[in-house]
Amino acid sequence: MNQRTCAACDCELDQQSIKVKLGDKTVEVCCEERATALGEAEAARNSVANEK
Ligand SMILES: [Zn+2]
User: Fold this and answer.
1) Domain contains 52
2) Number of domains composing the chain
């Protein structure tokens, strides 16, 4: 399994992939827009967890 896919939209990744750190794991996406969206989703999840 050496074919990497975008964590946001499942498209194939080439050298242009962008790494996004989500907590203690790193995922790769195809464009900066997706990276930002993923980062914001993770931040929202963290703030919800903190409200408990
Ligand atoms: Zn993508």
Assistant:
1) no
2) 1
Transcribe the chain into DSSP letters: ----B-TTT--B--TT-EEEEETTEEEEESSHHHHHHHHHHHHHHHHHHHT-
Q: Per residue in 13-52, pLDDT tens? A: 988 899 998 889 999 999 999 999 988 888 888 888 777 6
Distance 2 CA to ligand 1 centre (A): 17
Cβ neighbours for 25, distance < 8 A, ≥ 6 positions apart: none
- H/E stretch holding 18 reads strand 18-22
- Ligand 1 midpoint to CA 51 (Å): 31
